[in-house]
């Protein structure tokens, strides 16, 4: 709580009293704290790859270049870390654009079956590299109103995670189904009908204690694992924001060692 006192005067020299204002600043402080934490996190995340690039470049300059094999492996690291830096910067810009609502969405009707087929086709090569089966099961005639590019970002993020966090030979499945709204007299018929898109995998799963935090920026269950799979720790927070911009919700159910379900629900487009 913050207290401020404002003197109240009726005429020039006369002090009539004080107006005391007691303001609850919890929300403001929390926002400030979140913002400064985010800046600290961003700096830390950016410093790591920069330090690697600098360190390996220096070692090369100090003589490691003479050994061809060493040089090759150090240059590969420098190359990969630069890629990582690029992805990080891209994701940070993306997130800040979405959060400041500077990105306006271009909504149009989307045929989910057609759309999801395109998404799974797009990820097929990536899945095949790990011998992961990619399966689609989508009802026909499901239409939603969406920004196709942004919806694509959601799906590709979830599919990429499914593949990243599933061991070789596993399965990733996309399912789309109609969810009827709750009947209510005052509502227009079908007003809150939805579609549910579930991306499931037979992967490593997420420990119970981490589930509530999984959509936070830079939150990872296992930093090393996320790093080695090329993750930035920002994917799911971007997904969550984009789902909300589509008036939808996203949640997760997961069991360690069994797999995860990411469940996206969006309003159905009434015919
Ligand atoms: P990252 O770039 O690290 O994958 P995300 O924001 O996409 O970042 O996900 C945050 C964290 O959530 C990941 O680091 C991982 O620990 C966990 N996670 C996300 N998707 C899955 C999944 N399908 N299976 C298991 N863990 C997952």
Automatic annotation (TrEMBL):
- Histidine kinase domain residues are 41-270
Q: Where in the cell is it found?
A: Cell membrane
What is the protein named?
A: histidine kinase
* Organism (species): Cohnella fermenti
Taxonomic lineage from the root: Bacteria, Bacillati, Bacillota, Bacilli, Bacillales
Q: Which residues of the full protein are shown?
A: 333 to 603 of 603
């Amino acid at each position: 709580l913050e207290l401020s006192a404002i003197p109240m005067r009726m005429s020039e020299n006369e002090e009539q009293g004080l107006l005391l204002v007691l303001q609850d600043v919890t929300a403001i402080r929390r926002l400030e704290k979140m913002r400064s934490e985010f800046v600290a996190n961003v700096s830390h995340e950016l410093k790591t790859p920069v330090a690697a690039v600098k360190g390996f470049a220096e070692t090369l300059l100090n003589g490691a270049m003479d050994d061809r094999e060493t040089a090759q492996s150090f240059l590969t690291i420098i190359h990969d870390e630069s890629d990582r830096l690029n992805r990080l910067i891209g994701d940070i810009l993306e997130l800040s654009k979405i959060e400041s609502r500077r990105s306006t969405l271009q909504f149009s009707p989307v045929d989910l079956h057609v759309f999801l087929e395109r998404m799974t086709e797009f990820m097929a090569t990536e899945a095949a590299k790990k011998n992961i089966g990619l399966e689609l099961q989508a009802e026909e005639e499901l239409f939603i109103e969406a920004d196709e590019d942004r919806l694509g970002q959601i799906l590709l993020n979830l599919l990429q995670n499914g593949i990243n966090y599933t061991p070789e030979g596993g399965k990733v499945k996309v399912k789309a189904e109609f969810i009827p709204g709750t009947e209510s007299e005052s509502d227009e018929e079908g007003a809150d009908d939805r579609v549910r898109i579930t991306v499931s995998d037979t992967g490593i799963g997420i420990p119970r204690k981490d589930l509530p935090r999984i959509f936070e920026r830079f939150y990872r269950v296992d930093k090393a694992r996320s790093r080695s799979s090329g993750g930035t720790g920002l994917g799911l927070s971007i997904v969550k924001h984009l789902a909300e911009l589509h008036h939808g919700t996203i949640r997760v159910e997961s069991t360690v060692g069994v797999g995860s379900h990411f469940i996206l629900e969006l309003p159905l487009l009434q015919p």
